[in-house]
Design a protein that fits this description.
Low-confidence stretches: 1-12
Number of strands: 0
Mean pLDDT: 87
Strand content: under 5%
Order of helices and strands: HHHHHHHHHH
Distance between the termini: 44 Å
Structural class: mainly alpha
Oligomer: single chain
Helix content: over 70%
Length: 303
């Protein structure tokens, strides 16, 4: 039976494991990551938008005290957001919490699949799992002070329910709710980032073309007073900064590579019918799933 047949045969009898049924540490880390990510991009987006607005005001250059106050306020607001990003560094919380959440997620799947190192008795595996969660949190010097850890909330009823299923059911569950889920996720993310990269580069090209066109027109009509060239120059710089921060191309390539690795790996699941072979398969699969997140964390120098 291949992976597709396993998934189809079990889709009606085994429910997926939801976020609320993962360890409390995973939920807390995922929430912290999501909130920090939103804070980072909101602050960055507003700061870049204010710079474009300031360039518009500079081109208008109305001769009034009120206008001068407005322009100064806009620039000060942009500076305040820059100071916030520099000192609070929400991106570090975002990166670290996401890496922490994914680390917890991968050891959770190892635990509920009874894969090494959680292929011992229930009591031994439980102690080992909780100890590893503590270690994962303690290794993160930024988050271990702001994310709570409660031993009693880390192993849920659904986790034990899945763990105690026979191997055939666990293989079915893993095929549908982990392997196929991750393959679909990485493929969709690769397509999304590739599309976003294309969209933003097209926008950058159009903005730069408009700036060049206006510069040429200014040569032809040097006596005209108002030329919005500076607006498009600023917008071009902001667009480029957004592209560099989002790293659409880099993520698209990374996600595509991970999806390719998973597609090659999933064909081996059919042969993993014994506990030993299935444990080895889960270990290889979880290493593949976590590789992109490990590299992603390292590229951003998260503590």
């Amino acid at each position: 039976m291949n992976v597709k047949e396993i998934a189809v045969s079990t889709s009606l009898e085994i429910e997926s494991i939801s976020v609320q049924e993962f360890p409390n540490l995973y939920r807390n880390a995922s929430l912290a990551s999501s909130n920090a990510q939103k804070s980072f991009f909101r602050a960055l987006g507003f700061s870049l938008g204010l710079l474009v607005f300031a360039s518009i005001l500079s081109v208008l250059n109305l001769a009034s005290a009120g206008f001068a106050y407005l322009q100064a306020a806009v620039l000060l607001a942009s500076l305040a957001l820059t100071v916030y990003l520099s000192f609070n560094q929400p991106q570090k919380t975002w990166y670290g919490a996401r890496a922490l959440a994914e680390s917890v997620k991968t050891v959770t799947w190892r635990f509920i699949m009874r894969a090494e190192p959680y292929d011992e008795t229930q009591e031994q595996s439980t102690k080992h799992f909780v100890a590893n969660l503590k270690k994962i949190l303690n290794d993160n010097t930024v988050l271990n002070k702001i994310i709570a850890f409660n031993t009693g909330d880390e192993i849920t009823e659904k986790m034990n329910l899945v763990r105690n299923m026979p191997i055939a059911k666990r293989r079915q569950f893993y095929a549908l709710h982990r392997v196929d889920n991750q393959l679909d996720w990485y493929r969709s993310k690769a397509r999304l980032n590739d599309a976003n990269s294309s969209k933003w580069y097209k926008s950058l090209f159009i903005i730069q073309a408009l700036a060049i066109g206006l510069a040429i027109l200014r040569i032809l009509y040097p006596t005209s007073e108002y030329w919005p060239t500076d607006i498009f120059v600023t917008a071009s710089g902001c667009c480029l900064a957004w592209l560099q921060t989002k790293r659409f191309q880099e993520l698209a390539a990374s996600y595509s590579l991970t999806a390719h690795d998973i597609s090659l790996l999933k064909e081996k699941l059919g042969a993993a019918k014994t506990e030993l072979k299935f444990s080895a398969f889960v270990g290889d699969a979880e290493n593949a799933f976590s590789r992109e997140h490990t590299q992603w964390r390292a590229r951003r120098d998260v503590d």
